[in-house]
Write a structure and sequence with these properties.
Strand order of the largest sheet: 1-6-3-4-5-2
Radius of gyration: 14 Å
């Protein structure tokens, strides 16, 4: 069984927009650490009755010296959605641990790799499970 959370959307730091990789942001609670830890996950985002593949970051953005943990999901196949208030995140497979990057370009390259890895993982997952 995969760990699932149901959360209200919150405002983030707007870094996803800056990187041209917008995210849906939700709160990170201490119980999340016990279940998912920190890192990057291939995930599914449920909005109403639809599922969307995503790459989800959980933890603190050490590249930006951010001490507050957050959960940020980038939808892989959809850039624009109507206003959303609540989502469900299903954490499928952990891709990697949190890394510190020397610059924004290195971070963006890694995020793009994470998105490709997530797509490949989720494509196989959906074929086996749906």
């Amino acid at each position: 069984m995969h760990y699932r959370i149901h959360r209200n959307i919150i405002n983030g730091y707007q870094r996803g927009k800056l990187l041209q990789l917008p995210t849906l942001n939700v709160r990170y609670y201490s119980s999340d650490y016990k279940n998912i830890g920190t890192g990057v996950w291939a995930s599914l985002i449920k909005i109403k009755n639809n599922y969307y593949p995503a790459a989800t970051f959980a933890g603190n953005a050490i590249t930006f010296k951010n001490n507050r943990k957050t959960i940020e999901s980038h939808l892989l196949d959809k850039n624009v959605l109507p206003p959303i208030k609540k989502i469900q995140i299903i954490f499928i497979i952990k891709i990697r641990e949190i890394m510190k990057f020397e610059n924004i370009n290195d971070l963006k390259l890694q995020i793009n790799k994470d998105c490709i890895n997530s797509k490949n993982i989720l494509r196989k997952y959906v074929q086996r499970n749906y």
